[in-house]
Amino acid sequence: IYVDKHPQGVLFLYAVDGERSSFILKTNRQNKIDCSTILKATMPIVGGKGGGKPDMAQGSGTAAKTVELIKAIEG
């Protein structure tokens, strides 16, 4: 798994299905990044909601805004 080989890294996956997108943000449990906080803060960009645990969070929203969400998470 990516997060085991890269404990300081963050994995962001998304899938587009028609007009909806689904998102997963994951990191190593020992990383200080809180995936749930990041996803909750950025999901309004796609008009969706998300949440989870500090090491893994998921959500969904409008596919048309996926690029904007990716840029916000990168930032």
- Count of individual beta strands: 4
Radius of gyration: 12 Å
| Shape assignment | elongated
The count of helical stretches stands at: 3
Question: What are the segments in which pLDDT stays under 50 over at least 5 consecutive residues?
Answer: none
Q: Specify the structural class.
A: alpha+beta
The main sheet comes to: 4 strands, antiparallel
Short description:
The chain has 75 residues and is α+β, with helices and mostly antiparallel strands.
Chain-wise SSE layout:
Blueprint lengths: L1 H4 L4 E8 L2 E8 L7 H8 L6 E5 L2 E7 L3 H9 L1
Antiparallel strand pairs: 1-2, 2-4, 3-4
Keywords:
single chain; 75 residues; alpha+beta; elongated
Structure, described:
- The protein is α+β, with helices and mostly antiparallel strands.
- It has helices spanning 2-5, 35-42, 66-74, and strands spanning 10-17, 20-27, 49-53, 56-62.
- A four-stranded antiparallel sheet has the order 1-2-4-3, covered by helices on one side.
- It has three helices and four strands; from the N terminus they run αββαββα.
